[in-house]
């Protein structure tokens, strides 16, 4: 929870942009995509309340829901349905 609040304070871009290396990490810098990729339910909830789009897609065309399923983040899947 404290980490999520820190990310919100930083505006998410810098904090969520860090550590996105790897062959399957989303390359788009969308805040919701990044929050879902890393499994941050609280942050994803806040972003959705602030108007983040569940239709946003990464460079492979994956939505936040696709990423939640891919990563096995069941609470996020429920949130995004």
* Count of individual beta strands: 0
At CATH level 2, the architecture is Alpha Horseshoe
Number of domains: 1
**What is the name of the CATH topology?**
Serine Threonine Protein Phosphatase 5, Tetratricopeptide repeat
Order of helices and strands: HHHHHH
**CATH homologous superfamily assignment:** Ankyrin repeat-containing domain
Give the end-to-end Cα distance, rounded to a whole number of Å: 23 Å
Overall pLDDT score: 80
CATH class reads Mainly Alpha
Largest sheet: none
By helix and strand content, what is the structural category? mainly alpha
Low-confidence stretches: 20-24
Shape category? globular
Strand content: under 5%
Count of helical regions: 6
Helix residue percentage: 40-55%
Taking all Cα atoms into account, the compactness measure Rg is: 11 Å
Explained architecture:
- ANK repeats lie at residues 60-81.
- Pfam families: Ank_4 (PF13637).
- InterPro entries: Ankyrin_rpt (IPR002110), Ankyrin_rpt-contain_sf (IPR036770).
- The chain has 81 residues and is mainly alpha-helical.
- The protein has one domain: Ankyrin repeat-containing domain (Serine Threonine Protein Phosphatase 5, Tetratricopeptide repeat).
- The protein has 6 helices and no strands.
- It has helices at 2-9, 13-17, 31-37, 41-49, 64-71, 74-80.
- α3 packs parallel to α5 (64-71).
- The longest helix has 9 residues, at 41-49.
- The protein is globular, with a radius of gyration of 11 Å.
- The model is unreliable at 20-24 (pLDDT under 50).
In short:
With 81 residues, the chain is mainly α.
